[in-house]
Amino acid sequence: MRSRGPAIAILIALAAHAGLAAHRLGFLPETARVLIAALVLLLVPGFAWMRLLGASPPGGATLASGWALGFGVAWNALLLSVTAIARVPFTSLTVATVPLNALLWVIAVRRRGAARDQTPLGGTSRVFVLLAALAGAALALRLGAAMTNLTDSPDHIGTIRRMLEHGTLFPTDAFYRDAGAAGIDPRKFLWHGDAAVITRLAAVEPWVAWRDLPILLTPLLILNVAGFGARIAGGAGAAIAAWVLFLTYGGSPAGTALRETVFAAKLADQLALAATVALLVDLAHSRASSRIAVCVLAAAAAATHVFAAFQLAVVCAALFAGLLARDRALSGVARRLVGTALAAGAAMAPFALWQVLRTPHAANPIHTEPQGLLTLWDHVRVVSPGVLWDWMGMAWLLIPLLVPRVWRVAMGGSPAAGPDPEGGDRDGGRTAALTVITTLAAVAAILFLPLVVAALEKPIGYLLMRVVWMTPLAALVACAIPRLIDDLKRPVTRLGRAGAATVLIAIAFILAPAALDAVHVALHARSIAADESRRSPLRWRADLESLDAVLPAGSVVLSDPMTSYAVPMLTREHVVTLLDQHSSPSDPDAVRRLLDARDALDPYADWRRVRDVIDHYGVDAVVLNTRFDEVPVLDYWSPRPEWFAAERARLDRAGRAFERVYDHGDFVIYRLHRDALASLDQPPPARPFVSGASIESQGIARRGAPDTPGFIALALTPRVAAPLDTVRGVIVWRAVAPMPPGSYLVAVRFDRPMPGGLTPPAWISKPVRKLVERLHRERYRFRADHLPVAGEFGVDLWRPDQSVRDSFSVAVPGDVADGYYAVRVRMIRQPHYPNFRLSDYFFDDDYYSGLPAGIFGVSRHGAPRLAPGQPPPASSAH
């Protein structure tokens, strides 16, 4: 009976595949159908190919599903490529994969002499690995993929929707009707074909499939990382790597990274990791089957996202250099590495070349301008170290803590206990440990060596920040902890035992915040999900779907950037613009689209400008939306309630041109009538926040930078507030010269002296202040950022003969200290990911320092008290 179990499971899976293709399983819940569709489309053929090719991962059957995913993705990439070459709709695979996958298994079960499985995990290790995978699945099940308004999900889902409408893999009109070849987003490759087929097979909406796929993909990521741990330290390493991944991936389980495994970039990382583990298996066993496994998994990664080819090239090159340094000769392992790396490169080449050749040149300044960089001096730059905190949180501290110990293992130091009985590397994990060390070194070089950054900045742009994702943190910890425990049990010296204990305590301390986050998410998943739903485009789902009822398919909708971002996700319609960074890197008109939409929806715009935009993009309808719990801070402009009210009043007055066909109070749809629009010629109303700049105001305008407007005055109401109060502010600006289009941000910063008159040297003032704040559990600085005039009257439109009143609000944080605060104001023209200077990490006078603008008081009881040593304010006038 035991030998029949797998055969019965395969028969059930094939029958389920046929049932879905024949639309016979509609009675099942949507989530169940999505998971079944993903299993039968990805894992069922993946296991068949693994059997056919004799591939077996470290840890045996327990971890085999991770590799099966890669084999299944590679198989489907091949099938999708055939549909593209044959010019048939890729959706035909919904049915065609049923007999094809059945045939695969008929051949697979007849194959004899399959490669022997790797040593399976022991019982305890298996339990801990599976518990970590179950925790990942439960997290994804309870919260779903991250689909808030500012995530990447809406544009991926919109692309899949358009793919299904046209039956084409690379639609040019996923968002814009007029984009042409520039509408093909190079970030969306063959994985989106898989996701689309799964959507069609499960008979669900694209957003449902996108929401549910992480329930399968997240535990598979954990199993693939456990495979690295098994290779480096056997069963214990697999269990440690699985849990460290769960706790630290993207910072902690409280973030969204573990639920972004459906994104092509994250899936490609997972498959590149599986290919790396397969490479380690090949270096240890030198079989034809192990080399083929590397090639298949590498091809799957490249077919998912072309960046994976770069990642694997970096890993192989770094490991080769490490082997030469360790062995001081071109060893057999190094020669095997070269051969396997070349074979994997050949397997990836067709997909990488296809991706490169089909992609127009990057022309979108939102993507191509330098961003996320740190200037050391003059024009010498590296990637901002903030990427370490953004991706790993405190866990990045484990790298300097553990690298010395793993280095000793990698370079031939005595491993803890030799080869592990549960599948550890036959050289005691030395080559796997060396892979960890060399990959870390390569990541550090790419991020923080100025010459490397200068060489790669233009070819890969802001993707430089993504390199931090390659950090093998879980494998590093999996290598170190078993050795530390062994030192604790059998120390060479008494000092060795104390050192091991100290490092283990430090590891626990560093991982504790992530573990507490995991507990918090488990206990409060419902409230977290509710909070995300309030920031999700699904909140407008019923309203947006009404577009399909009142407009012909393929109509063009004009709306604010955030609402526009959701339209292709949930409807058949196109839009004028997308949100900030989410346009394709190939789109040369991305900034122009944002600014055109802003101008066409400007309540104070000239009707000629409105007609120009509407005619240029072929707009058919206008959507006004103010259903936001708080005004979103975007890069170019944000939909404020004041904007909504003024624009709605204007369109309602022009009712012959803008027919209101849907009205939910805070969500309104207008159908456009061009003949009536052409007759509108009333002069635009005066902007209530703009006035002529007097000679006096021209004389006092101060500029913080040559490419920003001049600052005239700031008013805050009230001038004294308690923590958690909301303060209203107005800044008066004047453009002393025409300003270029771009993303502008206003930073209003509040600073007070530290207690006791403490004044550290300027070059360490920021670290000292942060230390004092932590010790005193109160803050002496806070900042509020906003778009100037919410972007509704763009800085590029300001004239030198105007003064502009910029209204905003500041929420006073609850942990700020009482006292008088000096207020500084700065307007910054910056990319989506700001560039900083090295001095910003040490000097309090940093990137956000601005022009002095007045004094503000914070007090919990009555008038603010002066800090010890703080002089009384000269004036509280603003």
What does this structure look like?
The chain is α+β, with helices and mostly antiparallel strands and 878 residues long. Helix content is 51%, strand content 11%. It has 29 helices and 18 strands. The strands form 4 sheets. A 5-stranded mixed beta sheet has the order 4-3-5-7-6, with helices on both faces. Strands 8-15-12-10-9 form a 5-stranded antiparallel beta sheet. A 5-stranded mixed beta sheet has the order 11-18-16-13-14, with no helix packed on it. Mean pLDDT is 91; it is low at 414-425.
Question: How would you briefly describe this protein structure?
Answer:
The chain is 51% helix and 11% strand. The protein is of the alpha+beta class.
Main sheet: strands, sense, barrel: 5 strands, mixed
Radius of gyration, taken over Cα atoms and rounded to an integer in Å: 29 Å
Strand content: 5-15%
Gross morphology is: globular
Weakly predicted, low-confidence segments: 414-425
Protein topology:
Layout: H1 5-21, H2 30-53, H3 64-86, H4 93-110, H5 123-143, H6 153-166, H7 191-202, H8 206-212, H9 214-248, H10 264-285, H11 288-304, H12 307-327, H13 332-358, H14 365-368, E1 373-377, E2 380-383, H15 386-392, H16 398-410, H17 430-448, H18 450-460, H19 473-489, H20 494-523, H21 525-534, H22 541-550, E3 556-558, H23 561-570, E4 574-575, H24 590-600, H25 607-617, E5 621-625, H26 641-653, E6 658-663, E7 667-672, H27 674-678, E8 690-692, H28 695-700, E9 702-703, E10 710-717, E11 720-721, E12 726-734, E13 744-751, H29 765-776, E14 781-786, E15 802-811, E16 819-829, E17 836-837, E18 851-858
Parallel strand pairs: 1-17, 3-4, 3-5, 11-18
Antiparallel strand pairs: 1-2, 5-7, 6-7, 8-15, 9-10, 10-12, 12-15, 13-14, 13-16, 16-18
